[in-house]
Amino acid sequence: MAWYGNRRSGQPRPGARAVVVGLGLAMVGALAIQTSTAVRSGIETSRKSMDGTTASLAGVASGLAGWSFGFGRNAEDQARIAELEAQVRDLHRWKDLAETMALRMERYEKLLDLVGETQGQSVTARVVAEENGPFAASRIANAGAANGVREGFAAINEYGLVGRVVRVGEYTSRILMLTDFASRIPVLGTQSGDRALLVGDNGVGARLLEPETPDKIVPGEVWVTSGDDGKMPLGVRVGTARKVGEEWVLDLALDAGPIDFVRLVPPPDFADPDLVPPLGGVQRNTDSTLRTVSAAPIAPAQATAAPSGGAPAAARPPARPAGAGAAGQGGVQ
Amino acid sequence: MTTAWRLWVLILVVLAGLTTGFGMSPGLGHLWWPIAGLWLAAGLAAFGLSVWVAGCLIMLGLTMDYMGDAPIGAWSLALLCAYGVALVAWDRQPPIPVVVAEAIAVIGGLIAASFALGIAGGIAGHPGFARAALTGDFIITVALYPLARFVILPASIRIARR
């Protein structure tokens, strides 16, 4: 008798069959109720915590493999360390140059009274798991809400844009890759100035959806984020354009190398118009001020014309209605 | 079903989960990686219909759903479908050679799982389904099954079956 039991297969087991079929139907039911947004949002909570578990599982598995396959790599590791040290030295020089340029740009912006895009603090994280399955192309980074990461942060590496954060756990965050079906990023051509929406293409690439002026796009043109959605920083490199058939696709910059570290960048910090204080104490319109403006009689041009006849009457501002506010701009706002 | 056998199935499921997890390690995401759950579905069907195995496959499927950001229940349904096809292959009457039964169980199971995943995505309202991402994984799953079967199926069952 085999150790797994004494039952011969092939015997009819209607009860067991019913249970297994029932389990299958239960799975179909579980899938069907996920069309409800309420159910999906409920599942999101468990997914957030499971992302941490997934990252740990991937870490354990890769750790075991590293332990078993990691012998005899000392020379290779030393060469890699030396190469990285050289890169760090090189990057220090670039850092100094960048800081100088940033200072100069800040001064220029002050001189021009330019309202720039303020950028919040970014977080650098390591990618600890990656998934290129039939349903999602995503990565899990080892920084989460506890590190200040929030949903909507852009994920950028040394080559360009990688994706955006779509779910944040306590110590992990899931990054939706540009190649995913659900990815939608507004982009801008650096030469043509054309704008389009970059959509993920079946998990293998990304294409430009509805470019405004496709005839102006140049093959090999570098495309960057346009920041039109107010969620992505402006000017992050995305890829280079290539025509396939009738449509344009981008050879993504993220494919240039492995994605091991990413910088998670918050959306540009635009001030909410509701929070901006009124200019110079200008009073807000009310129903009564608007009524006053519309009800005020328009003064005849002759009456307001200057006796000297310098400027024509039509070019002058109309007479200020009584009670329209201290600054007198209430009627035009 | 003995306790030892149930424990063995449980260990196999944990190993399959670890295999899937290892496939998610950084740098391996673009490689073809075997779907260990389908090995189990094809191989464990040789023991005959078992609610325990079906339950374990569902648990493994749910884990894969969470790991792969798939609709909850998609991989469970796929593994159950593959298990069902494999059961039919193994329990064919009159009996067919073991190799043929295994081939039908594995390849038929993969096809069933592929359809089930597509349907599951549709039912759950998922925006898309990348069949191309699965093709390579399916090929490597089939290619490595002859090795995996020695772990999943003990010699005793291969003798007892035919």
Strand tally of chain A, please?
Answer: 12
- Low-pLDDT ranges of chain A: 1-6, 298-333
Largest interface, C-beta within 8 A: A-B, 58 and 65 residues
Q: How would you state the average pLDDT of chain B, rounded?
A: 86
For the residues shown, what is the average pLDDT of chain A?
76
Strand content of chain B: under 5%
Helix content of chain A: 25-40%
Radius of gyration of chain B, rounded?
Answer: 15 Å
Written overview of the protein:
The complex is a heterodimer of chains A (333) and B (162). Helices cover 31% and strands 22% of the residues of chain A. Chain A is an alpha+beta fold. Among the domains of chain A are: 22-64; 83-116; 122-265, Rod shape-determining protein MreC, domain 1 (Thrombin, subunit H). In chain A, the strands form 2 sheets. A 6-stranded antiparallel barrel of chain A has the order 1-2-5-4-3-12. Chain A has a 6-stranded antiparallel β-barrel with strand order 6-7-8-11-10-9. The N and C termini of chain A lie far apart (91 Å). Chain B has one domain (3-161). Chain B has 7 helices and no strands. The model of chain B has no long low-confidence stretch (mean pLDDT 86). The interface between A and B is large, with 58 and 65 residues.
Keywords:
heterodimer, A: about 325 residues, alpha+beta, Thrombin, subunit H, six-stranded antiparallel β-barrel, six-stranded antiparallel barrel, 5 helices, about 30% helix, disordered N terminus, disordered C terminus, B: about 160 residues, mainly alpha, 7 helices, globular
Compose a concise summary of this entry.
The complex is a heterodimer of chains A (333) and B (162). Among the domains of chain A are: 22-64; 83-116; 122-265, Beta Barrel (Thrombin, subunit H).
Provide the fold topology:
The complex is a heterodimer of chains A (333) and B (162).
Chain A: H1 14-32, H2 37-69, H3 74-112, E1 123-132, E2 137-141, E3 154-156, E4 161-168, E5 173-177, E6 184-189, E7 195-201, E8 205-209, E9 222-225, E10 237-244, E11 247-252, E12 261-265, H4 287-295, H5 301-304
Antiparallel strand pairs in A: 1-2, 1-12, 2-5, 3-4, 3-12, 4-5, 6-7, 6-9, 7-8, 8-11, 9-10, 10-11
Chain B: H1 3-23, H2 36-44, H3 51-68, H4 74-90, H5 98-123, H6 131-152, H7 155-161
